[in-house]
Every structure is written in C-alpha cells, then in structure tokens.
Amino acid sequence: MAHTITLIPGDGIGPEVADATRRVLEAAGVKIDWDVQEAGAAVAEKRGTTLPDEVLASVRRNKVALKGPIGTPIGKGFRSVNVTLRQALDLYANVRPVRSLPGIEPRFEGTDIVIVRENTEDLYAGLELMIMPGVAQSMKLITERACTRICEYAFDYAERMGRKRVTVVHKANIMKLSDGLLLESFRKVAQKHPRIEPAEVIVDACAMNMVRNANKLDVIVTENLYGDILSDLGAGLVGGLGIVPGANIGVEAAVFEAVHGTAPDIAGKGIANPTALIQSAVMMLHHLDEHTAASKIERGLLTTFERGTRTTDLGGSAGTDEFTRALCEAIGRA
Ligand code: NAD
C-alpha cells in the first residue's frame, strides 16, 4: 500500500535535495503518493504568507511530512515557518543523530551521538519586546510539562534504540529556575529508567567535550537553543551540514528535515549535498515501519561513500545529480 506523505520542497537548495530524495526513495522501492505543498519565501510573494493554511492541513491529514529548508524573510514581519510548524503541530521532540560516514574524515572515528532537542519553547517562543528605546527583552519560557515530556522521549528513545546513557545539557548554575526545572524533571524521569545511565553536564563544558572527544557522548537531551547550537557543532564534527538529518516528532504528526538551511550561496548550482535530507527520509521510513527500504538506502549510502563518490562540500567533485545516480545504482544492487 502506498503511503501518502506531505512534501514541502522549501526554498534555496530545498527543491534540488527534495528531488534527489524522491528519486532515492523510488529506487528503494517504497510506494509514496506525494502531497506536494509550497511554503516559504517564494510563496510569501504570491500569497502574502510563508505558510498557507493548506500546508498545515496537509501535514495534519497525512501525519507525516518530508520538508526542505525554508528561509524566513528578515525584517518583513514574517514569522519563521519552521517555528510556526513546530508549535502549531506540537512537534515537541527534535531528534538529530550525529554520525560519521565512511570516507569522510570525521574529527573522531565512530562518532555516534543523538541530540534530542526540546522544540516548542525556550527563547524560540518568540516572546520579545522593546522595554524602552535601546533596551530589548527576550523571554526564556520553560515549563515543567515540556521538560518532563522531552526527558521521557529521550529515555524512551535510548531504551528503544539500545543506547546506554542519556546526558542532560543545561546551564542551571546560572539560570537556576528555568534550567533548574529541566534538571529537576530529568532527575525524576531518570528514576523511572534504571537501565539507562543518567548524566548531567553544563552546556559550555558539553561544547568543549564534544570538540575534545565526541565519542564519550551517547544521547543528549536539552533545551531548544542549546540543542540548535550543539547540533551544528555536531555536524561540524562529522563532515558538515550536508549530511546531518533530523526529525520533528509530535503526538499527532512527524516532520522530517535536514539540519541545514537553504544554503543561498550554492542554490541553483546543482552542487548541494542531498545526504542530509536522504538520511532524514531514512528516519521517516523507520517511523513508517518501512525498515527494509530504510536499510537498503543506508547500505547504499555506505557503499557510495566507500567508493569515494562525494559532493564538493565533502571534498569530492560530484554534483547533486551524479551523487544521486550513484546512490540509486548502489541501492539497486543492495
Ligand atoms: P545554511 O545551512 O543554509 O548554510 C550554511 C553553510 O553550509 C553554507 O555555506 C551552505 O552552502 C552549506 N550547506 C548547507 N547545507 C548544505 C548542503 N546540503 N550541501 C552543501 N552545502 C551545504 O545556513 P544559513 O546560511 O545560516 O541559513 C540560510 C537560510 O536558511 C536562512 O534564511 C535560515 O533562516 C534558513 N534556515 C532554515 C532551516 C530550516 O528550514 N530548517 C534551518 C537553518 C536555517
């Protein structure tokens, strides 16, 4: 039976990497009816909104979406589509596996961290005001409900995926109330999961640990802002933004998207690395219980990288199309 999935190609390199990902899913033999929806800067000019109502309705209806990056026009009064989607659909857990791939020189061999980032509140709630001319205030909103929910997700994920340790990343030594709430919730949830080792680290120390020896980390659970920064740091450790995937998980729906943005500097040049969105699609296939097709793509990616076919961001010479063709061929033989 075919899955009906919302596809939001997005802006910049989005349509290029989305097209590559569709081809790869087809090569893996998954039957998908794509419900293609436009959102982002291009739509804003035509429709006066970056997120037309039918896009949200489509994700609500199909429950699963694959999404390209979307740019937010700066200073034009548009809200970020990404933040709006996450809040409107209550996509509370942002899961970002940071893994090294063969043939790409990572800083550390065998890096395998999963960052579970709270996706709905913190400084991203967008609660900002000018108190007086020259003085701006941004509200960091943290609730016990969201902290407990994200910690439960991280421990459940660790158990489900056979992981050993969950580390909470915080700054409760300074933000005793807000980050203190995360720490308290983490400790309570940890007690219910005796098979998983709990660990605590302050965010600045975590950044240093990741750069010095990323392999000491397993699953990380953290707030929205720290998670955003640490996942880009993690991407840098394993070869850059071109390869790191992500999933936004909620109770009603899940939206799969790469960590990277619209990459305006390379958009339209046919050189974008589609691996990050392809790996996001692999996460989507696991979510849909299409494990055989997911493994086929994973094996195909390993073969393609082992053979040295790489896009320019990874020091290779393949364009998006050449890389995708090589991958589809490897999947065909997997
Ligand atoms: P970016 O991720 O778009 O680009 C950073 C650098 O990484 C650039 O040099 C780019 O060429 C490179 N890069 C990123 N993805 C790549 C890929 N797949 N292949 C090869 N190289 C790649 O970050 P930015 O420049 O800070 O942001 C650009 C726009 O994207 C902004 O409007 C931002 O708001 C938006 N953005 C959207 C999302 C999202 O939709 N989830 C996430 C981050 C940024």
UniProtKB/TrEMBL annotation:
The keyword Electron transport does not apply. SMART domains: Iso_dh. Keywords: Oxidoreductase. Signal peptide: none annotated. One of its GO terms (biological process) is tricarboxylic acid cycle. Gene3D superfamilies: Isopropylmalate Dehydrogenase. InterPro entries: IsoCit/isopropylmalate_DH_CS, IsoPropMal-DH-like_dom. It holds the Pfam family Iso_dh. Belongs to the isocitrate and isopropylmalate dehydrogenases family. This is Isocitrate dehydrogenase. The lineage of its organism: Bacteria, Pseudomonadati, Myxococcota, Polyangia, Polyangiales.
